[in-house]
Amino acid sequence: MRTEKGIFYNIDWGLVLIYFLLVSIGLINIYAAVYNEEHGSILDFSQRYGKQVIWISSSFTLAIFILMIDPKLFSAFSFVFYGASMLLLIAVLLIGKTVSGSKSWIDLGGFDLQPSEFAKIAVNLAVAKYLSALNIRMEDMRTKITTMAIIGFPALLILLQDDTGSALVFSAFIFVLYREGLSGNILIILALIIVLFVVTLMVNKFVIVGLLFIAALFWFTMIKKNRKDIITLIGLFMLVAGFVMAVDYVFNNVLEAHQQERINVLIGKEVDLKGAGYNVNQSKIAIGSGRFIGKGFLHGTQTKFNFVPEQSTDFIFCTVGEEYGFVGSVIVIGLFIGLFYRLLNAAERQRSAFARIYGYGVASILFIHFVINIGMTLGLAPVIGIPLPFFSYGGSSLWAFTILLFIFVKMDAYRLQLL
Amino acid sequence: MAQAVYSERKFVVISIFIVAGFLFILRLFYIQIIDDSYLLSSNSNVRRHIPQYPARGLIYDRNGKLMVYNEATYDLMITPRLVKNIDTLELCRLIGIDLITFRDRILKAKEYSTYRSSVFEKQISKEAYGYLEEKLYKYPGFYVQPRTLRKYVKPSAAHTMGYIGEVSPLTCENNAYYKSGDYIGISGIEKSYETELRGIKGARIIMVDVFNREKGSFRNGKYDTVAVMGQSLYTTLDADLQEYGEMLMKNKRGSIVAIEPATGEILSLVSCPTYDPNLLVGRMRAHNYGELLKDSLKPLFNRAQMAQYPPGSTFKLVHALIGLEEGVLFPSTRYGCSMGYSFGSIHVGCHNHPAPVDLLQSIAISCNSYYCNVFRTLLDNNSVSNTSSGYQKWRDYALGFGFGSKFSTDLPNILGGFIPKNEYFDKYFGKNRWKFLTIISLSIGQGEILATPLQLANLSATIANRGYYVTPHIVKYVGDSKKAETRFSQVHKTKISKQNFEIVVEGMYQVVEAGTARAYKMDSLHVCGKTGTAQNPHGKDHSIFIAFAPKDNPKIAISVIVENAGFGATWAAPIAMLMIEKYLLKRINRPDVQERMITGSLIHEN
User: Fold this and answer.
1) A121 Cα to chain B: minimum distance (Å)
2) Which helix (H) or strand (E) holds B363?
3) Which residues of B touch A302 (CB under 8 A)?
4) Torsion angle of the four alpha carbons B563, B566, B567, B570, in this order, in degrees rounded to the nearest 10
């Protein structure tokens, strides 16, 4: 049933407003980060801020275009988008261009397209489509495996591009799957695995295995000594000990030197302020030196004088921290959390499972970017080059995030027209 | 339906998201509000303090005549990273160095830093700078930093002015004001008035980017500080008199110290041989300093305040004053003299003169035996129980004249002479094993006692003042507001009454009128003086003369010592007389004496 109510009918203006604020604040900070006195106009298209103005206005156009589309098409063409996206990811591996170590760009004559950014939308659509089918139950092993495959395949292709950061983003779907019925234990186990992973890297593996053994003995005295329990206990001990040994092995023999360094710096095992730790240290200096209200617009020395690397893309949050201080940083974080909160609430009110799952996907993908990106600038997450949504300089990512968000805005606006 | 079953999981997901945001805010609170080390790191990343060197204060004489000023000089600075495609040979020629030196210096500069600038060539003269400046555009990475160098109007008062040089690493460490490469006063008043003269360094705060490229001034120079020029010093010296004294002492070893008695202001402080202070300035300083150090005549040695001589007969005045005050001596007291004083095997010689003499005559003709008697009565008389306590009493009087200890004044590196303590003799001869005859040489200012020319001039000033002195000092005012140096206005009184001084003054007047210095008597001026001859175990006696004039209301007190020049009357007296003439009358009535003094060379006699 279609009505002719105009493209802005029933859209969630709150979401649109937060989007608009984030994009605008982002632009101001890009302007400050790469400010060049000889090209002071924000519309100087030779500078990044000038270009970002172009990306932003084209994103607005895209947003309006999406609002004009019949939302049924997203659902209908989900797998088509997914297929096309996978083809692009494969194409990148063949004809892609390498920028700062990652072969993830396709040169379209003056404009570099990063297919991995768009793959997030396609995967989100595909997951939503797959899981919203009537006969699908999350509890089924078959469902789990298929979902894993839908998510894992593009992640693998992106890993092959040497773009670990973008691949990591796909872990966001754990929240979606959890919402759709994946056991909560898996979330807990995942968290435990991460803790064990970090501890393994920080402490000698034999010490950990020793401690685990003592814990196992202690546990052994507590349980009823029937055969099943003993086997479970031994199995569990072997599993965990094996994991510890495996992590140690993988870290030392599989990860590349720069990845090892980044992780070592993060867990504080290595302090190398001139080498691997330089970025994070300078980033913390930038943010920390902003104090309560910041140094003021264009007065951020850390970012303006290039002490912070990648200050308009991955480390854009440094400019916020430096020029607007604690107040500005909290406002930006608040805007993001507000966005997530609103998105999840909006997802929950959907009548169609497809729209709900897609909405969860949007919130989760944005959240993972937010956590890793800001965590990195604050020295809480490893240096992984992924953009801060709506903030970082870059056409592909801004377009992709805009499309990702506005598809949901459209679905949400359309929700009452579903029976 | 699955939807219904799991919808409460929304809260778990939302909670996770909110907790993450909350953790970030906590982290931000910690690094932005609690830990302020990031702000410091940020400032040290970006700000560079470029010191702005102030010019040192100027030095004037007592009449406002300029003595020391500054001349602009230029340090050629290098920033190795920016150096490219330069004509090495031409640059070498312009600053006068060879290619090997050039390469060494480039390497040294690179070793220091490729981004930061360091001195490539120090103190380029104005002339060389003229040529260099025109071509500097051809040498990227080089720039010129102006500094100032000391310059002396006349090549005089070298010892008093002292010199400046690069600050030592030790000083840098202990004093936060100084940075390596700064200049500091090393001797003379450049040293003692360093804080006044140096001014206040300014700083231009610039911002640099990650490659140390200058990115303009910090907050438009709002926090820059301007260098404040050092304060001017108005010394007590009379530049003309100083110069005249140096001329008279040419080719002689010795010193002249002239003091204004009422104020303790030093009018001239001549130490010869001296050197041209311009030698210890600029690029040749180290070389010239080495040469001066090697010179057998020790031109760097400041005789006026560091040489210690037996005061000779000038010290008879001190004995006479103490004797009068102690009541063991009266103007009418007469002692005989038969070519000296003899007691047993001990004999102190004297020259041929009519005897016996009274007090005034004893001063006028400088009778040795008279003072042996005076000193004996001081050590061995009824009022003192033994020699030691007599000596103790005598010594206390002597110290009251400023002998035996350093003046605490604004001249650095002064010595205090020597008036032995009782313990000194106790140790040397044994307790109670010494008496007058053991130390009889002290009667005539010989033996263990030593005094500096400055102390002798002060003795003269003390007598001129009839009983007190003001610590001799060299600076009258600090700064252009003419803030008077009040540190030295305190009057030091001797323990001897004014009347007794009048008697000795009369004796000194007789020295010039009819005594040992009568040859230099002036009709227009009443001068009081006293000759002295310091025995010198290493060669010919040192000629000493102390004097003041006019007799009433004296304006100048002086001591002159000419080493290895014989009797006090031969060299020291005429030089002192000429100085007094020059200062009080501003003209010389006896050009023949002046001529003899200037041309006389005693430097090779020994």
Assistant:
1) 20
2) helix B359-365
3) 42, 45-46
4) -90
Q: State CA B469 to chain mean position distance.
A: 20
Please report, for residues B75, B124, B164, B165, B409, the alpha-carbon distance to residue B283 in angstroms, rounded to integers and kept in the order given.
11, 8, 12, 11, 32
Q: How many angstroms separate the CA atoms of A419 and A415, rounded?
A: 9
Closest-CA distance, A285 to chain B, in angstroms, reads 5
Is A179 part of the contact surface with chain B (CB cutoff 8 Å)?
A: yes
- Topology of domain B239-277+301-599 in CATH is Beta-lactamase (3.40.710)
Round to whole Å and give the CA distance between A80 and A39: 44
d(C-alpha A390, C-alpha B540), whole Å: 99
> Are the beta carbons of B39 and A291 separated by less than 8 Å?
yes
* A283 at B interface, C-beta within 8 A: no
Q: Which residues contact B57 (CB under 8 A, 6 or more apart)?
A: B193, B196, B197, B198, B199, B229, B230, B231, B232, B233
| Cis ω for the linkage preceding B299 (within 30 of 0) | no
- Cβ under 8 Å to B: A residues 287-346: 287-292, 301-302, 304-307, 321-322, 325-326, 329-330, 333-334, 336-337, 340-341, 344-345
State which amino acid sits at residue B401. Answer: F
What is the rounded CA–CA span in Å between residue B31 and residue A286?
10
* Cα gap B256→B246, rounded to integer Å: 8
Report the pLDDT averaged over residues B403-411: 91
- The chain B residue lying nearest A294, using CA atoms, is B32
Could you write out the DSSP letters of every residue in B212-227?
A: --EEEEGGGGTT-B--
Q: How far is B92 from chain A (nearest CA, A)?
A: 36
Query: Is the CATH number of domain B49-72+152-231 3.90.1310.10?
Result: yes
CB-CB contact of A361 with A369 (8 Å): no
DSSP, residue by residue, A385-403: --PPTTTSS-HHHHHHHHH
> Which H/E stretch holds residue B49?
strand B47-52
Cβ(B507)–Cβ(B364) below 8 Å? yes
Which residues of chain B make contact with A286, given a CB cutoff of 8 A? Answer: 42
Predicted complex ipTM: 0.89
Neighbours of B487 (CB within 10 A): 12
pLDDT digits (tens, 9 = 90+) for B519-561: 888 888 899 999 998 888 778 889 999 999 899 999 999 999 9
- Across the interface, of B6, B32, B46, the residue whose CB is closest to A288 is B32
pLDDT tens digits along B1-28? 444 568 888 888 999 999 999 999 999 9
Alpha carbons B241 and B258: distance in angstroms, whole number? 9
* Distance, CA of A412 to chain centre: 22
Bridge partner residues of B470 (DSSP): B491
Nearest to B32 among A178, A290, A344 (CB): A290
Q: Do B12 and A336 touch (CB under 8 A)?
A: no
B222 touches A at CB < 8 Å: no
Say if the Cβ atoms of A291 and B209 lie within 8 Å: no
Helix, strand or coil, per DSSP, at residue A16 = helix
Residue ranges per domain, chain B? Answer: 49-72+152-231, 239-277+301-599
Whether the upstream peptide bond of residue B356 has omega within 30° of 0, thus cis, is yes
> Half-sphere exposure of residue B220, counting CA atoms within 13 Å on the CB side?
0
* pLDDT tier at B606, thresholds 50, 70, 90: very low
**Interface touch A348/B16, C-beta < 8 Å:** no
For residue A138, the Cα-to-chain-centroid distance in whole angstroms is: 23
- pLDDT tens string B363-396: 999 999 999 999 999 988 767 678 888 899 999 9
Residue B109: helix, strand or coil by DSSP?
A: helix
- Please tell me the predicted confidence (pLDDT) of residue A267: 67
